[in-house]
Amino acid sequence: MDINATKINEANAQITATIMQDEINAKIDKIAKELAKTTSIAGFRKGKVPISAVKKQYGDRLVQDAEAEALREVLSSGLDELKIDNDLLIGEPQISKFDKVDGKIEVEVKVAMRPVIELGEYASHAAEFSKPNITEIAVTDRIQELAKAQAPFVTVEEDRELVDGDTALINFDGFVDGEPFEGGKAEDFSLTLGSAQFIPGFEEQVVGMKKGDEKEIGVTFPENYQGSLAGKPAIFKVKVNEIQMKEKVRMDTELAKKMIPGDENATMDMLKEQVQTQMENEELS
């Protein structure tokens, strides 16, 4: 993992990193191995579940957990390099770049911190200053965005259609020229709609399905797809087993305590004040 940390000014810093896909894969294997000790999957005894079955069952969530762990390592290493303590940070770090290209992830994280300022004879030299106008709505939107990124998945109980952003647990069985092909079948596969995880056109046709729905989806493998399937049309028989979504964000004291770690007396007013300060610093940087 290649990490570079730079101070923009006394109140802001930027951490950039390149995370190789091999590192993410290693973390996926580690998380899946730990999960295999406790999870229960039909057909296997508890504690004896193969890692391959865990990966098939939890798919996208394993990737998300591995990427989140890698991001935490990037932040920790970057702060160490900058010699910045966690208690000097204001608000949550902002992930301004997370691009997956060519077997690696390019990451850029911005952090705001309490500046250490030595005051001298400043009054006679003070320039006219216009404080950025950060609205309460903008602060609330930022808090909800940060909280939603950390929220767990929950099962959708209501009878409704899948929409972009939902996670669907699906069974699928793929056929080319009427014959099944290797790797074209899975059960309880975790697919987040809009993630571009599948062949182009697949996820768009899952949108609108409901729990229990079955459907045949027609797609064409890209010309640059590896192996003998490149450019070939395929039919997937798909069944939706479960719909999941991010847990609804609650703007309350518990959220404030979670987002201001180490402060048991944290309140929403304190959180809003910190986030507003961070956004003001971003405007000034």
Describe the structure.
The chain has 285 residues and is α+β, with helices and mostly antiparallel strands. The chain is built from six helices and nine strands, in the order E-E-H-H-E-E-H-E-E-E-H-E-E-H-H. The protein has helices at 21-36, 51-82, 136-150, 202-206, 253-259, 268-284, and strands spanning 2-7, 12-20, 94-101, 104-112, 153-155, 167-176, 179-192, 214-220, 233-246. The strands form two sheets. Strands 5, 6, 7, 8 and 9 form a five-stranded antiparallel β-sheet that branches. Strand 6 and strand 7 form a beta hairpin.
Ordered list of secondary-structure elements with their pairings:
Blueprint: E1 2-7, E2 12-20, H1 21-36, H2 51-82, E3 94-101, E4 104-112, H3 136-150, E5 153-155, E6 167-176, E7 179-192, H4 202-206, E8 214-220, E9 233-246, H5 253-259, H6 268-284
Antiparallel strand pairs: 1-2, 2-4, 3-4, 5-9, 6-7, 6-9, 8-9
